[in-house]
Amino acid sequence: VTIAREAMKNDVFRRTVRAPSWVVLRSINQEDTLVQNTNKLLDFDPFIEGIKTGFTKPAGRCFVGAKSVDSWRLLTVVLNSPDWPKDTKAMFDWAFTELQRSEPMHKGQWVGNAPVRAGVSATMPAVLAQDFFVIFRRDHAASQPSIEWEEARAPLQRGQVLGYVNATSFDGQQVRAAIVATDDMPGAPPWQALAAIGAVTGSVVFGLRRRQRPRSRPRPRRRPQNAR
């Protein structure tokens, strides 16, 4: 599934595995080759996108499938199946009926202002480094994403990871996406850092002085009247 997910991000690969046939162009010394797609599901479902049939004696008949509905692509893997089209169709029917995708957060979407230490500013606007969504059952509420900020210290570079958005999928798997800085940020100049330390130190000293009570002077002793 991991290999199929990455491969389907390539436009040429998607068009190739979805085509009923494909002409492989050869050099001038060889004839072009017409390749027929053996994916039977392409003829029965217009939403099927591929991907690959396969067979070996130890593994049996196998199939890696992809189907997109409303811009939501699901991937399936069937191993050692006597009827891989039937098994794959059953998996797709179950998934698109029982599961639902949360409203996606898109790459580049503003997430929040990340706290920054020792910078010219105390915060840095942060955006998602990739699309983010959660798969959940239709009869259950979706897991609400949470933000986990990293300890960021200037200087910062644009695209530097400042934290993560986390959520839990329907099967208990943790889903996360990186949050990155929108710009560079230099560190605070020395005088600014010293001024900040001085301001904090002064406020602490002032607070301590306010808490100290003034010492009272000892009262003079009165001399008895009959004393000479």
Overview of this protein structure:
This protein is α+β, with helices and mostly antiparallel strands and 228 residues long. Helices cover 22% and strands 33% of the residues. It is built from four helices and 13 strands. Strands 10-12-13-8-7-11 form a six-stranded mixed sheet, with no helix packed on it. A three-stranded antiparallel sheet has the order 3-4-5. It has a two-stranded antiparallel sheet with strand order 1-2. β7 and β8 form a beta hairpin. The longest helix is centred in the last third of the chain and has 22 residues.
- Return the average pLDDT rounded to an integer: 86
* Assembly status: single chain
Secondary-structure-derived class: alpha+beta
**Per the principal axes of the C-alpha atoms, what is the gross shape?**
elongated
| Number of extended strands | 13
Question: What's the layout of helices and strands?
Answer:
Blueprint: H1 2-7, H2 11-18, E1 21-24, E2 33-36, E3 48-56, E4 60-69, E5 72-78, H3 84-98, E6 99-101, E7 110-117, E8 123-128, E9 135-137, E10 146-149, E11 152-153, E12 161-168, E13 174-181, H4 190-211
Parallel strand pairs: 7-11
Antiparallel strand pairs: 1-2, 3-4, 4-5, 6-9, 7-8, 8-13, 10-12, 12-13
Keywords:
228 residues, alpha+beta, three-stranded antiparallel beta sheet, 4 helices, six-stranded mixed beta sheet
Summarize the structure.
By secondary structure, the protein is an alpha+beta fold.
